[in-house]
Design goal:
By secondary structure, the chain is an all-alpha fold. The chain has one helix at residues 5-104. The mean pLDDT is 88.
């Protein structure tokens, strides 16, 4: 039995066709699997966008509440200062009235 160039070429072509067929089969399997996974990827991305939007809205609400708290704190501090001043004034008036009462006695 002699191995001829024709037989070598034939074996080469057969092996090449087998490799191409194997590559084609794996490519198709990958494409089918990916096509089933793709809607889940899109769903996950849309869920991510939804959660990100909710997070951004909560962050804005948090910032506005912090600003409101800051404004309320400033207003309360100014009222506290006003009350402290009026308390000091009343204390001074009381002291002066006590002195007048003592001087009258």
């Amino acid at each position: 039995m002699q191995i001829t160039d024709e037989k070598v070429k034939e074996n080469f072509v057969i092996r090449a066709l087998k490799q191409i067929g194997t590559f084609f089969i794996f490519t198709m399997v990958f494409a089918i699997v990916f096509s089933f996974l793709q809607p889940r990827v899109y769903k996950t991305h849309s869920e991510y966008l939804s959660i990100k939007e909710k997070y951004d809205n909560l962050q804005k609400e948090y910032d506005s509440l912090n600003e409101k708290i800051s404004n309320d704190t400033n207003a309360l501090n100014s009222k506290k200062e006003d009350l402290t001043k009026s308390n000091e004034d009343l204390q001074n008036k009381l002291n002066s009235l006590n002195k007048e009462i003592q001087s009258l006695n």
